[in-house]
Amino acid sequence: MTNPTPMPSFQSTLAPWIEQFIGEKRACGYKYTTPSDELRRLDRFVQEQRLQVVALPRLLVEGWIAPRPNERVRTQQARVGLVRRFAAFLIRHGYPAYLPQARRNATGPSVFVPHIFSHEEMQRFLRAADAIPFDPRSPLRHLVLPEIFHVLYGCGLRVSEVINLRVAEADLLRGILTIRQGKFRKDRLVPLASSLSQRLRRWDASQGGRLPDAIFCPSWGGRPYHRQTVYHAFRQLLWHCRISHGGRGRGPRLHDLRHTFAVHRLAQWYREGAELNALLPVLSTYLGHQSVYQTQVYLRLTADLFPDVAARSEAAFGHVIPRRPLP
User: Do 164 and 268 lie in a common domain?
Assistant: First the structure.
């Protein structure tokens, strides 16, 4: 089992409170890795400002959250949101802290719509993945990346869950993957479709005997693939398949394979005449969501393809089905 993410070191007068703040978040199940890195930068900024008391003065906060050169609005807004949460934490413990306005300099709500691949697009994409050529600079690339992409779409996993999967966590005789310490530090079991299970058994057999703790889909040297490497391969495959890409932040994104899995699953249940309301908690558990409310957005996305889905789901979930696309 992987060790918990180590606590970054902090040096300012706010150091013990930053550490306690991060500790609370992790106790609630959040990995809090990226926010911890940002809080380390805040800690250095506090040192540079020579703050000698436990507080978050307004001038210091405004200096920290000010837009930076060439910074995306979403990145700056994330920094504002993090400082707001930390300021509220200090206030709760009796220390003065300036609480900046939410969504500072916002340009409006996100209009990003995930790309739901059609079945024909997915077939082209996976065929292209299976045909990745040998590259002497990365001798396992043409063997490993196809399996990664098949699992990403076939199971709807997050990319971090696939690249960190270990041999002992892939029970291919029973066709079950064990995802440990996924998002929110949740463990879960993910059953495989029989065709995918057979494919992975062939792949595993081709690798010979491996230690239980070995990475299931390793890069050269047995290390996990870096997610950015998988993303670059994803972009290359999109280009090869003539699936247009809108540029950075516009998609299709690698994470859209997960969205596509969920929508295709709901659409298949719809075609089979299944009761979607009853099966939504099953999909929620399979995907590792915290609650079924996170999964309900896929009803709206599926309804774009199958309008009757919305009508069938309205009675039970009409008041909570999102009216806007997934941000």
Answer: no
Residue type present at position 319: H
Buried b (16+ CB within 10 A) or exposed e, 238-268: beebebeeeeeeebbbbebbbbbbbbbbbbe
Q: Is this structure's pTM higher than 0.70?
A: no
Residue 199 maps to a domain:
yes
Rounded Cα–Cα distance for residues 42 and 48 (Å): 10
**Cβ(199)–Cβ(150) below 8 Å:** yes
User: pLDDT digit string (tens) for 91-103?
Assistant: 999 999 999 987 6
pLDDT digits (tens, 9 = 90+) for 190-234: 999 999 999 999 999 998 889 999 999 999 888 999 999 999 999
Task: With beta carbons less than 8 A apart as the criterion, state whether 179 and 222 touch.
Answer: no
| Rounded CA separation 155/204 (Å) | 17
Q: Is 301 in the same domain as 204?
A: no
- Domain of residue 263, residue span: 256-317
Do 129 and 223 reside in the same domain of the chain?
yes
Residues 231 and 263 in one domain: no
Are the beta carbons of 309 and 319 closer than 8 angstroms? Answer: no
- For residue 9 the two structure tokens come to 């070191």
Kindly state whether residues 85 and 162 are assigned to the same domain.
Answer: no
- Phi first, then psi, for residue 267 (nearest 5°) are -65, -40
263 shares its domain with 234: no
Considering the domain architecture, whether residues 231 and 178 belong to the same structural domain is answered as yes
CA angle 45, 50, 55 (to 5 degrees): 80
According to the model, what pLDDT value does residue 105 have?
46
DSSP 163: H
- Number of domains composing the chain: 3
CATH code assigned at 220: 1.10.443.10
- What CA–CA distance (Å, rounded) separates 187 from 192? 16
Residue 45 contacts residue 54 (beta carbons within 8 Å) = no
Q: What angle do CA 71, 74, 78 make, to 5 degrees?
A: 100
